[in-house]
Write a structure and sequence with these properties.
Blueprint: E1 3-8, E2 12-18, E3 25-32, H1 41-52, E4 59-64, E5 75-76, H2 79-87, H3 96-109, E6 115-119, H4 129-132, H5 138-144, H6 153-167, E7 175-181, E8 185-191, E9 194-198, H7 219-229, H8 231-240, H9 243-248, H10 254-262, H11 266-290, E10 295-299, H12 300-305, H13 307-314, H14 326-331, E11 340-342, E12 351-355, H15 359-371, E13 385-388, E14 391-393, H16 396-403, E15 411-414, E16 421-430, E17 435-443, E18 450-452, H17 455-461, E19 467-468, E20 477-482, E21 487-497, E22 500-503, H18 505-511, E23 518-523, E24 530-539, E25 546-550, H19 551-556, E26 567-571, H20 578-588
Parallel strand pairs: 1-4, 4-6, 7-10, 10-12, 13-25, 14-17, 18-21, 19-21, 22-24
Antiparallel strand pairs: 1-2, 2-3, 5-6, 7-8, 8-9, 11-12, 14-18, 15-16, 16-17, 16-20, 20-21, 22-25, 23-24, 23-26
Helix pairs in contact: 1-3, 7-8, 10-11, 11-13
The protein binds adenosine-5'-diphosphate (ADP).
Length: about 600
Amino acid sequence: MHVLVLNAGSSSLKFQLVDPETGARAAHGNVQGLGVGGRSHEEALREVLATLGDVRVDAVGHRVVHGGERFHDATLVDDEVIAAIEAQISLAPLHNPANLMGIRATRALLPGVPQVAVFDTAFHVRMPRRAKTYALDAELAAEHGLRRFGFHGTSFRYVAQLAADHLRAPLELLRIVALHLGNGASACAIEYGHSVETSMGMTPLEGLVMGSRAGDLDPGIVLRLARELGVDEAEALLNQRSGLAGLSGVSNDLRELQRLAAEGDDRARLAINVFAHRARKYVGAYAAVMGGVDAIVLTGGIGENSASMRRRILQRLELFGVRIDEDLNQDAKVGVEQPVFEISEDRARVRTLVVATNEELQIARDTAAVVRGAEEVRQPGPIPIAVSARHVHLNRAAMDVLFGPEAELTPMRPLSQPGQFAAEERVTLVGPRGRIERVRVLGPLRPRCQVEVSRTDEFLLGVDAPVRHSGHVQGSAPITLEGPAGTLHLDEGLICAWRHIHMHPTDAEAFGVKDGDEVEVAITGGVRDLVFGDVSVRVSEKFVLEMHIDTDEANAAELDTGAAGAMLEVYSTPKGGAVGRLEKKRWRG
Ligand code: ADP
């Protein structure tokens, strides 16, 4: 599949032809000189298409800067979507009109090719209210739509996922402070996969020091400038002649400032220091916002390339557990081949990563997903719950002892997981204190014996079995089994099953979880509502969606097998950072 990614600006049309699966870039370029007095976006696109030759464009993905409150995700473009983007023009007067010109040009020249709009703001749409609300008259703010939107969302989403992949931890377990430092710059607090704070605000003018934008300043200054220079001049000053350019008086390019600073230019030095100080301030603030931080990610032209700026920003963050290996920092080099480079010391509690962003690839992937209808994957619904009574899994040798040589299990009824069945055969469990008779054997035979009982059963038997995942019987409790043909003592194999959910990969995708994740499951609507924590997620092509609990757990929630729709909510709510979770799992063996 080939996705043409377009970033239409007022005076230029940037394009890339990307394979969303491999990330391979078949073509790229930037047609300049558009707009007033120049060529139209349609002419520019015609040029782009000519350079592509015979390559078929399967879909077009547009970078759209402002999606306002309306757009939460990448969206297939139709008349209604175009009208909605148009309606956001007042929020991004420089960008949205140009983005629309790109969309209209595509409609004219590639009719029938699906188009998808990918919004810079979408990642931040679900920020908590406390983060997106300005302390202004509430009615006035609502009337004028004065709130934080945030930008660079496509980049943040992309680098956060790469960071999680590098750390081999699910994004849902990580608290990340990401710094996108390019000509435009912003910081984002990504808490368990969601943007919960970001430094750009209603417009991309707030927050960090940028190439030519001021970022944070006292609103009193804005008023003073507007009064003395006029609104238009003040706007131009804050957007185009502030930031690094304004501070240094010479350039918005950090490389140039570093060269001047090395020669002793004091204004260039101050510009660099103000930039780093502001960024560090945000890292600390966002760690506090999330109640901790597991990883810091630096990206954008400056974040990816400037070791000295990274060092300046990250110094003094030891209190959070940030420790940078300066050799690694100097060596860090990221690009298409190696997009992630870790610069933290081994013993650092917070992992620090340099990540090469690739917004075009993210847009291409989003576009492909929308076009394929992948966003229509089944919405997560209730999870059926099965209550497992005490039962036994046997291997061939145990079968021989308990039921006679070559004896086979007799399937009685199938279980919900394909291929599994309850057998006619039963055994007796014998413990030091008591016996439990007529315990069902489940088939088919397995490589190892495993006996699963509830805590209450353990009291009857007089044994103490560990809570374990199925199959993890090493070091578990001993138990004796009696069958019609003989008695078998197992040195280990008795467990209390760890509650778990079987899922097909399509279910996992719908719930946004992975094999090995732990989730909380709420049982509501009955007389003994209960939230089960530490529910382990098991994903396999062979599984159908079903949560398995034992009889004690079912009784605690007053449930029966087949309790229809009892399962109302699933959410991955980690209790600690990734590290805490990993340790907890290790401790449980
Ligand atoms: P944009 O936001 O326009 O995409 P970039 O992400 O390309 O911008 O970032 C541009 C910034 O990155 C400039 O300030 C430039 O000086 C800086 N930069 C790029 N390479 C280096 C480098 N090797 N050392 C220091 N700064 C660099």
